[in-house]
């Protein structure tokens, strides 16, 4: 069994659940509204967390490389270790915000990911202190252990992001399956006025928002975690996701509120003889 598949054991490990519950309590203290959207990366259109982790990981990796090079680079290495320590806060807060809106299997792996990164951070803090006391060998050994812990933590983070698609656009594959030709979704009156209705275009789920004769259609899965949007609500000109409350504007499907960061794909619509037709947006 390959390593990535072995990590699925962590996903099923119920003994992590009390820690998951404590972290959820902590996550509830994060700000809501626009600051929370910022932590998710809504203004960027991508999750913020992968960007924020570059500075600590990059600084600490550079410090370890300097430690291993011949010559005296202690001042530069110490500065890099401290830069990494200062940069952990945005990485932690944005990661916690994203983690709080994930599925149980991702959250269990996320707890171990966080514990390893916390261990790595503590080791780099101890390394910084040792550098301050001019205990060079000890400082280098601590940094080496620290980068090891952060490296394994990063591997688990990649499992959450790539194996389990945490942070990816969960509706992206639908775009390639959407019919290029016009597809009949049935009578327009069959979709609830002032609400959301679901339909199917050659097996591709579609969500339809109708207000009288005005109609918008989107690919029907939430870009955050793939929730069926037809089960959501139409609120203030937005489609609200039934799972974590992301809101997508009827004007172009853009994200009004996270945790989703990717917009909904808008389908081209047409009505003829009281029937609603849709087709791929890029046709
Ligand atoms: S699935 Fe999470 S907000 Fe839609």
From TrEMBL:
CDD domains referenced in this protein's UniProt entry, alphabetically: Rieske
Originating species: Nocardiopsis kunsanensis
SUPFAM superfamilies the record matches: ISP domain
Entry's transmembrane regions: 141-162
Residues forming coiled coils: none
Keyword annotations of the record: 2Fe-2S, Iron, Iron-sulfur, Membrane, Metal-binding, Transmembrane, Transmembrane helix
InterPro entries: DUF2231_TM, Rieske_2Fe-2S, Rieske_2Fe-2S_sf
Residue span, Rieske domain: 182-278
Name of the protein in question: Rieske domain-containing protein
Any one GO molecular function term: monooxygenase activity
Domain of life: Bacteria
């Amino acid at each position: 069994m390959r390593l990535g598949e072995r990590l699925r054991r962590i996903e099923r490990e119920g003994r992590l659940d009390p820690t998951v519950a404590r972290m959820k309590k902590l996550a509830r203290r994060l700000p809501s509204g626009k600051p929370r959207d910022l932590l998710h990366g809504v203004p960027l259109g991508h999750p913020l967390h992968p960007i924020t982790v570059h500075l600590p990981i990059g600084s600490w990796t550079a410090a370890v490389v300097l430690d291993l090079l011949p010559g005296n680079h202690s001042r530069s290495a110490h500065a890099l270790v401290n830069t990494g320590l200062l940069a952990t806060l945005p990485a932690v807060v944005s990661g916690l915000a994203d983690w709080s809106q994930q599925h149980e299997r991702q959250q269990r792996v996320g707890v171990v990911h966080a514990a390893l990164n916390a261990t790595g951070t503590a080791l780099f803090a101890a390394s910084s202190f040792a550098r301050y006391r001019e205990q060079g060998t000890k400082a280098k050994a601590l940094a080496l252990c620290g980068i090891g812990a952060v490296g394994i933590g990063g591997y688990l983070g990649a499992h959450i992001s790539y194996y389990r698609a945490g942070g990816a656009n969960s509706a992206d594959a639908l775009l390639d399956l959407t019919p290029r030709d016009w597809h009949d979704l049935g009578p327009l009156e069959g979709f609830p006025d002032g609400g959301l209705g679901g339909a199917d275009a050659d097996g591709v789920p579609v969500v339809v928002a109708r207000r009288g004769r005005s109609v918008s259609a989107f690919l029907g899965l939430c870009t955050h975690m793939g929730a069926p949007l037809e089960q959501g609500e139409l609120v203030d000109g937005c489609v609200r996701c039934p799972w974590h409350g992301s809101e997508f504007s009827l004007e172009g499907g853009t994200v009004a509120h996270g945790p989703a960061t990717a917009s909904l794909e808008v389908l081209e619509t047409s009505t003829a003889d009281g029937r609603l037709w849709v087709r791929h947006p890029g046709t």
